[in-house]
Each structure stands twice: as C-alpha cells, then as structure tokens.
Amino acid sequence: SKDDEVVGMVATGDAKKTLLTITEKGFGKRSKIEDYRIQSRGGKGIINLKVKEKNGFVVGVKIVNEQDEIIIITEKGVTLRTPVKSISITGRATMGVRVIRLKQDDRVNSFGKIINNGD
Prior knowledge:
This protein has strands spanning 18-23, 27-32, 58-64, 69-74, 79-83, 97-98, 108-114.
C-alpha cells in the first residue's frame, strides 16, 4: 500500500541462514531465505510479516545463524539476550511468536546480533 515503508534490507549468500524479523510489540520470527524471491533494482519489495495490532510494526531484520544470539532493547531500557534458535522458523507472511514480554507502555526500540569472539 502507499503507507508501507522499507525498514530493512539484507544481502543473502548462505541458504543455511535465516531472516530474523522483530516487531515493536515483542514478536519475532525466522524465515528461510529461499522463501523470498530475488528483487532487481526496480523491485517493489516483498511482504515479510503480517502487521496487526497484536504484533505491531517491524523494528528491523537481520540474517542469522542457528548459533547466534541477539539482544533486544526497549524504549524503557529493558534488555533481553536470547538465542536465535529459541525463535521458531515460520512462513514468510506470518505474524511470528512472542520473544519478549513488554509492559503496556513499552515498545521494542532496536535489536542486534551479539558478536561472539570465542571468549
């Protein structure tokens, strides 16, 4: 629709990795890279998530491995570190599962992949 916005873009290379999506209301999902068709320069994007009142808008997307961990940060400063494997792999246009429980007036602000240097 005209109100849609691009919130992220990723370059894919390894079909074993998955696309992780996190929403403002604490939902997340992983989907297989092969579920997305390749877009050329004139492409209009691909729907990645069914945005509903329950899950909210997408905060961001990242390419992840099964062994990765992420950290989620909310507007109120709450943080959650969680393994990626705890988030289900689902279809491309699904809602996702709850990853973090939020207080009513809080929202996910950002998330990132934790880089482990083998320490």
